[in-house]
# Entry
Amino acid sequence: MTAIFPSWATRAARIALACGVTALVMTPLLAMIWVRTPLARGEKLSITQPVPFDHRVHVNGLQIDCRYCHAGAERSAWAGLPATSKCVSCHTQAWISSSVFEPVRQSLATGKPIPWRRVNELPDFVYFNHSIHVNKGVGCETCHGRIDQMSQVHQAASLTMGWCVSCHVNPGPNLRPLTAITTMGWTPTKSDLDQMKTLTADFKIKRLTNCSTCHR
Ligand code: HEC
Ligand code: HEC
Ligand code: HEC
Ligand code: HEC
Ligand code: HEC
# Structure
């Protein structure tokens, strides 16, 4: 009786099976590893903006407070971006005649905002609120890093669920006095630390790990 399959077929079938199983296991595994890398999460990725706005010049050099341009951070869920009129209070008509200011001129002419590209962005199913954090002593620096040293803003934290929860289980050590909310490069003094102890007690920080806190 002649064999239906030649002798090499079994070997080929085994190899194919092995490859199939490896692919089945490795593909989701690699995908799971990949989504957790800083690159896939958009961390440290530099994003080119329509106008080369430099926080180093405006925050460090000119000492403008974050809230002058991101006023919503203290009052609402959104920190918000400044209206173009804020820029032209300093950047007068003569100044913005140069080519880098073309999108600023466009915005003034059309009344449409400058099309800034988003840097930090959570999925829609996550609820986040700036004012709650800012008014309870979480500084901008804690979540956004040294903005004063960035020529282009990049995402400084992973913004994963694990990142949010790791602070929510015990926010105390991550808090600072409200007077230092927008300070960059903050280092606590002894009196700050004493003040923090009473502040932390005042905050009545609950365990903020209920799913419904962030998924409502
Ligand atoms: C003079 C106005 C101005 C000041 C002052 C300022 N910013 Fe900004 N900020 C902007 C503009 C314009 C953008 C959008 C362009 C960009 O990303 O650089 C921006 C972008 C950002 C972003 C990224 C937004 C996103 O899409 O995720 C963060 C975070 C931020 N600023 C934090 C800060 C912090 C913290 C301070 C204070 C230390 C500060 N800014 C001070 C004007 C300002
Ligand atoms: C409080 C005043 C002030 C405000 C408000 C302000 N700027 Fe500036 N900006 C300056 C000064 C001063 C410089 C530094 C000029 C230098 O050192 O050459 C500068 C520099 C710049 C530069 C680089 C200039 C160049 O010619 O390359 C850009 C771009 C710029 N600003 C954009 C903006 C935008 C966009 C806004 C609004 C979101 C804004 N600025 C708000 C004062 C301001
Ligand atoms: C607890 C962490 C946290 C703190 C504290 C925080 N931010 Fe944010 N910020 C975020 C997250 C997360 C986003 C993205 C929000 C989204 O996509 O819904 C964001 C977005 C932004 C944006 C983009 C525009 C917007 O409103 O979404 C700006 C500008 C900004 N933050 C500035 C600030 C400034 C200025 C401060 C301090 C006064 C601050 N943030 C404090 C986490 C934080
Ligand atoms: C560095 C610390 C820290 C990080 C990081 C942080 N939070 Fe918070 N969060 C707090 C503190 C402190 C409070 C205020 C607690 C209180 O009111 O007692 C708070 C409160 C909240 C509240 C309001 C809870 C309520 O119902 O009163 C929401 C929603 C929230 N955080 C969402 C988030 C999300 C989403 C992230 C991640 C993108 C995040 N937080 C990251 C410290 C943090
Ligand atoms: C402090 C805020 C916070 C709390 C509390 C929280 N989540 Fe999340 N969750 C997030 C954020 C932020 C993301 C988006 C993460 C991302 O983009 O990778 C997320 C994503 C998710 C996702 C989408 C899958 C994923 O991992 O990206 C699921 C499912 C989820 N959360 C379920 C839960 C459940 C169940 C609980 C309660 C045990 C919970 N979350 C509590 C902030 C929170």
In short: The chain has a mean pLDDT of 88. The CA atoms of residues 57 and 63 lie 9 Å apart. The radius of gyration is 25 Å.
